[in-house]
Amino acid sequence: MFWLKRNLPRLVIAPSFGVLIWFVYGFILWTIYISFTKSKLLPKYEFWGIDQYFRLWSMPRWHVAVENLFIFTVLFIILCVFIGIILAILLDQKIRAEGFLRTIYLYPMALSFIVTGTAWKWILNPSLGLEKFAIDIGFETFTFDWLVTPGMSIYTIVIAGVWQSSGFIMAIFLAGLRSVDDEIIKAAKIDGAGLIAVYLKIILPMMRPVFMSAIVILLHLAIKSYDLVIALTAGGPGISSDMPAVFMTQMAFHRSEIGLASASAIMMFLTVSAIVVPYLYSELKREDQRN
Amino acid sequence: MQNYQELEKSSNTKKIIYRWILFIILGIFALYYITPLYVMIVTSFKTMEEIRQGNLFAFPNSINLESWNVAWNGQGFSAGDVYLKTYFWNSVKLVVPAVIISTIMGAINGYALTKWRFKGDSWVFLLFLFGTFIPYQAILLPMSRTLGTIGISNSIYGLILVHVVYGLCFTTLFCRNYYISISDEIVKAARIDGAGFFKIFFKIILPISAPILVVTVIWQFTQVWNDFLFGATFTFGKEAPIQVALNNMVLTSSSVKRYNVDMAAAIIAGFPTLIVYVLAGKYFIRGLTAGSVKG
Q1: Dihedral angle at the C-alpha atoms of B190, B191, B192, B195, nearest 10 degrees?
Q2: What average pLDDT values come out for chain A (291 residues) when binned by 10 residues?
Q3: pLDDT for B253 beyond 60
């Protein structure tokens, strides 16, 4: 009885912990191992070395996917952070309709990427969407066919992604701004500093941790992006808007290349880890210092 | 203070101009966010004839409900008909148990990790925390094999398991972060009075957990309802959840384009989460930020 009582907290956590170890970490280890084998349709457990990784990095399609991921990530982060900060600062000026505006800025976050992609696919449709509207109102030579143009379709994913996620960045920056003491702004103003200077020189530098969180979240979202690509361009035209997550599912479930698919999944996992581990380390250290 | 007030007075006109610029910029952004929803709604009420002739932003001539009917019920022929009805209910059957189970487990985990500290508990927490970041591609293949082995592949039960397992990291994290801000003194006092683990949980912790439970439930609901990757990977045909069905619908209709039906379907698929957001936006935002400012 005494033993049970003393170990009850551990026993209560044990099922969840077991699930975590098996389904998260065990599965990752399995995928790592499979990436070192010759597995095609079914897993083969004979060790083959790092050849799948050589194969992966010699595939033009993988290079397209990585390049697209790079373009998407950079633009997605820059635009989301830029729009998020501007909206947060403007909303922080004691606006009357703040609640209403905030609701409008943030609602896309409640929609799935499939819904987002479906909506934007229609808006960006070259024959009936924005392009037709522009032609109808008199811009007869207007063309906007990024959705079906190789090399440009990746930017439509950026447009839809920024629409979906930038409101969220606004929300976390707004929360950060609200925690800044009003007295600091007043004091700086008395010293003759303009509002823009106050924000650029004093307040934004104070928000470094918020920047860090926002960038880590966006990076993480970008690397995982799959649904939006599927719904908006399905990786096309051709493979021109392919991304690693799409590549992985293609290889795993349509091409019977599970060894190669595992190698690409592990590349994604390593990229996320390289970003998240140092971030978590610094966050937890900060928390330790606070306690 | 005197100095500051004078400064404010002198810049009054400047202030009014600032305000106007401010509102114009905010208004432009509001248009950017609201336009797609507006386009979806007006398109869903148009006939295809109207869509081909009119433009994207034009108001519908009349309220045509046929596309909504087709999106929900299908066209009535048996082979190759696509509609949302069945899949909407699939998602309801999936979301209810998945959210309840993962929330309860998360609450108990969070409580045990903060109020009954044991050796190594911070490592346990760290493993949960890192689990919220893993790209699911790294677990898809073994998961689909495991579901096959247990015999619940291509079923709602399989998806419930998947969503509970990977939601657990988030629910545990949310609850842990909430409970750690609650004073240990109450729990200590109750322990001295002889109350046990579960008694303290149900009598003391649970009654003050409403805010975090609402946040957790909303987060999990949104995640499960909006999931596409797991649904598309582990189910097909009649067992698929709503987002998979929506995507199939849009793809199938691409031979004969039916944008009005697509838009009606997209609104139906987005409706539940949108309602939750409008009704409980405050908690929704708190969940997003709780998930972001981790640790």
Answers
A1: 80
A2: 80 93 96 92 86 94 96 96 93 85 91 95 86 81 82 93 93 86 78 79 85 88 92 88 94 93 96 91 77 61
A3: no
Exposure of A25 by Cβ count < 10 A (0-12 exposed, 13-18 middle, 19+ buried)? middle
Domain that includes residue B228, residue range: 85-292
User: At residue A47, what are phi and psi to the nearest 5 degrees?
Assistant: -65, 135
Of B40, B128, B277, the CB nearest to A110: B277
Write the CA distances from B167 to A20, B81, B164, B210, B222, integer angstroms: 10, 33, 5, 19, 11
Same domain, B125 and B12: no
CB-based contact (8 Å) between A29 and chain B?
no
pLDDT of res. B252? 77
Q: Which amino acid appears at position B184 of this protein?
A: D
What are the chain A neighbours of B250 within 8 Å (beta carbons)?
Answer: 118, 121, 231
In a domain, B76, yes or no: no
Q: Do B134 and A269 touch (CB under 8 A)?
A: yes
Asked if the model's pLDDT at residue B291 lies above 60, the reply is no
Residues of B in contact with A249 (CB under 8 A): 137, 140, 229, 233
Domain-located, residue B80: no
Render the burial of B224-240: b for 16+ CB within 10 Å, e for the rest: bbbbbbbbbbbbeeebb
Residue B258 has pLDDT above 90, yes or no: no
DSSP per residue, B130-166: HHTT--THHHHHHHHHHHHHHT-TTSHHHHHHHHHHH
Q: How many domains does chain B have?
A: 2
Upstream peptide bond of A209 is cis (omega within 30 degrees of 0): no
For residue B174, is it within any domain?
A: yes
In one-letter notation, the amino acid at residue A65 is: A
Look at B246 and A115 and tell me if their CB atoms are within 8 Å: yes
Residues B60, B82: Cα–Cα separation, whole Å: 25
Closest partner residue to B56 (CB to CB) among A123, A262, A268 is A123
- CB contact under 8 Å between A106 and B126, yes or no, is no
Task: Measure A201 CA to nearest chain B CA, in Å.
Answer: 20
Overall pTM surpassing 0.80 (yes/no): yes
Q: Is A256 on the interface with B (CB under 8 A)?
A: no
> Which of these, A153, A146, A159, A84, lies nearest to A120 by C-alpha position?
A159
**Domains present along chain A, CATH in parentheses:** 61-290 (1.10.3720.10)
pLDDT at B9: 64
Q: Are residues B176 and B220 in the same domain?
A: yes
- B89/B144 same-domain check: yes
